[in-house]
Structure formats: structure tokens, C-alpha cells
Design goal:
Structural class: mainly alpha
Number of strands: 3
Strand order of the largest sheet: 1-3-2
Radius of gyration: 18 Å
Largest sheet: 3 strands, antiparallel
Helix content: 55-70%
Shape: elongated
Length: 150
């Protein structure tokens, strides 16, 4: 198991034990898990994002901490959160990760996810000029997510 997987699993266990909110001290956690503090930062920025249903807050200084909160949003709120988070451009890898996270959290059913991924795939967008694909993909994904709310 990679160290990033170990860090993520440890944080998830803390969240489960603490009812969805965990406070950690980065240096202490890094020492406990035998990694460098930057590895903790990497895991937090890549696996505990708002798009994945988490809020991460940090307070610097001597008594500093990092607070991770598992968000409890309704399906409609989660979809709106995702739509707002897409922005003006969306690459294929991010679209796939976002849709996969929505399936895992129960926001999207598998069939809807497959349709969104098919519509926003590189194969589908092949006729669109390369410099416009991420913009078109963002518009497609946002509109399909909004349509899935009804």
C-alpha cells in the first residue's frame, strides 16, 4: 500500500470515529505515519476536496491544526455544488473522477454517469477543436448534471 493510501485511510478512519469531523496536526500525523508533512498536504488537496464531499480548514501557528469535515449535502445540493465547481473548463480526467465520486456517494446512478462520461469523452468531442474541448466538456457536464436533478 502506498503512503498516500495509508494517510487517506487513516484520515477516513478518524472521520468515521469522530462523526464526520476530524482535527489533526500535520507534523504529528506525519511523524505517526512515518512520512513527510508535505505528503499529508498532498493527500488533503487530492483526496479531501469539496468535489469529493469534504471541507478542509487549517489554522497556522503554534497550536495550529487542520480540520476535515465530511459534508452532508442533499443530492440536489451536491449536484449544484459540483456544477458550480466545474468552472469554465473541464479536462477528461477530472470529469471522470468527479462523476466516479458522485456515483460512489450515491448522487448519480451508474447509468446517468455512463451517459455523462460518454457525452463528454474525447471520442465524442473529436470534431471540436482541441483548444475548445475542455470548455465544451464543462458545458456538457454541467447541463447534464442539472438535467439529472429532475
Amino acid at each position: 500500500m502506498r503512503i498516500s493510501d495509508s494517510v487517506a485511510n487513516y484520515i477516513l478512519e478518524l472521520l468515521n470515529q469522530a462523526g464526520g469531523i476530524a482535527e489533526i496536526q500535520r507534523n504529528e500525523l506525519a511523524g505517526f505515519l512515518g512520512c513527510v508533512p508535505s505528503q499529508i498536504n498532498y493527500v488533503l488537496t487530492s483526496r479531501f476536496t469539496p468535489e469529493q464531499g469534504y471541507l478542509v480548514e487549517s489554522r497556522r501557528g503554534g497550536g495550529g491544526y487542520i480540520r476535515i469535515t465530511r459534508l452532508s449535502l442533499s443530492t440536489a445540493d451536491m449536484i449544484m455544488h459540483m456544477v458550480n465547481g466545474v468552472g469554465d473548463a473541464l479536462d477528461g480526467a477530472t470529469a471522470r473522477a468527479m462523476v466516479q465520486n458522485m456515483v460512489q456517494s450515491g448522487v448519480l446512478d451508474r447509468r446517468s454517469a455512463e451517459l455523462i462520461l460518454a457525452a463528454s469523452s474525447e471520442k465524442t468531442l473529436m470534431a471540436v477543436p482541441k483548444e475548445l474541448r475542455d470548455t465544451v466538456r464543462a458545458m456538457l457536464v454541467k447541463n447534464m448534471l442539472l438535467a439529472s436533478r429532475t
